[in-house]
Amino acid sequence: MILFEQFVAHIQGTMRDVFAFLGVAPEISINPDPTKQNSRAGRTIYHPWSKRFGRLVPDPVKNVLPSRLRLRLRATVNKLPTPEFDHTDLSAEQVSQIYQQLPPEIRALYGYWV
Asked: What is the CA radius of gyration of the chain?
C-alpha cells in the first residue's frame, strides 16, 4: 500500500518501488511537472450557508425565481463567513470508544497507520 503522503514526499523512490512491483525497468525516471497543481487549492469548498438557506426556501418559490437570480443569490450567500470547525483533540477514552465501533477491516487499517 502506498500512502499519498509517502508518494508526495518521495516520488522517485515510490515510483521505483511501483516499477519493480510491476516488472518495469527501474531506471525509468518520472519528473512530475511542478506547474501542474491543484487548481482548487486555497478555495473554500464547504458552503454551509447555501444548504441552510436552500432548505428555508420552499421549492415553489425556488421554481419561480429565474435561474440567474438564484445563482446570484447563492453566490452572495456563499460569501458569508464560514463557521470554524472545532478541531479539539479527542481523549484517549473517546478514541477507544470509536475504535471499538469500527468494523474489523477498518480497525486493521487503523492499526497499520498508527
From this structure: 23
